[in-house]
Write a structure and sequence with these properties.
Layout (H helix, E strand, L loop, with lengths): L3 E9 L3 E6 L2 E6 L2 H7 L5 E10 L4 E6 L2 H11 L6 H10 L2 H9 L3 H4 L7 H15 L17 H12 L4 H15 L5 H13 L1
Pfam families: HHH_5 (PF14520), RuvA_C (PF07499), RuvA_N (PF01330)
Organism: Sphingomonas plantiphila
Family: Belongs to the RuvA family.
Length: 199
């Protein structure tokens, strides 16, 4: 299992990139957002990966963040959602926007992606609502919102890697962010979020 790649960005296409790791070029499928985030050709990049194995092929999918990879896994777990459709969704919606759409049962937002009809969008929202959970907006309470900021996103990812559900991770990090303020470090966020989640 390949968890991530560290190397130089060799080439990019409409839906993929080639990462040169010590002279070996790894072809990774990628969303438009990931391709935009990777930067210029020749730059050193880190790509989080997911390996897809079928009867006739082995493919690597690449993601600019662990959070995007985690949502790819959740999306492809829904019946009728393959890698292509999941990447299409993640091309137009950030992981935070996907979480918000699902928590708010906003199928129309998901249906904006190529290849996602109203019925499939509704199925995605229905099947993932328990996994995405309702993440409370601080103070307002009108719907759901994911944590904001890269440190918060990284903290959510850290909790997901520890086995927490997306809803639990986001709720804990939101609570920690509210308490610590905007300038909180990743380490402080994770420590406090773990304490919040344990309660």
């Amino acid at each position: 299992m390949i968890a991530h790649l560290n190397g130089h960005l060799a080439t990019t296409g409409i839906d993929h990139a080639v990462i040169d790791v010590n002279g070996v070029g790894y072809l990774v499928g990628a969303s438009a957002r990931t391709l935009a985030a990777l930067g210029a050709l020749g730059e050193f990049v880190t790509v989080h990966t997911e390996m897809l194995v079928s009867e006739d092929s082995i493919r690597l999918m690449g993601f600019a963040s662990a959070e995007e990879r985690d949502w790819f896994r959740l999306l492809t777990g829904v019946q009728g959602v393959g890698a292509k459709v999941a990447l299409a969704i993640l091309s137009i919606l950030s992981p935070a926007e996907v979480q918000t759409a699902i928590a708010r049962a906003d199928a129309a937002m998901v249906a904006r992606a190529n290849g996602v009809g109203p019925k499939l969008a509704q199925r995605i929202v229905n099947e993932l609502k328990d996994k995405a959970g309702g993440v409370a907006i601080g103070g307002g309470g009108a719907g759901a919102a994911p944590p904001v900021g890269s440190a918060a996103n990284d903290a959510v990812s850290a909790l997901l890697n520890l086995g927490f559900k997306p809803a639990e991770a986001s709720n804990a990090v939101n609570a920690a962010s509210d308490e610590l303020g905007a300038g909180a470090t990743l380490d402080a966020l994770v420590r406090l979020a773990l304490r919040k989640a344990a309660k």
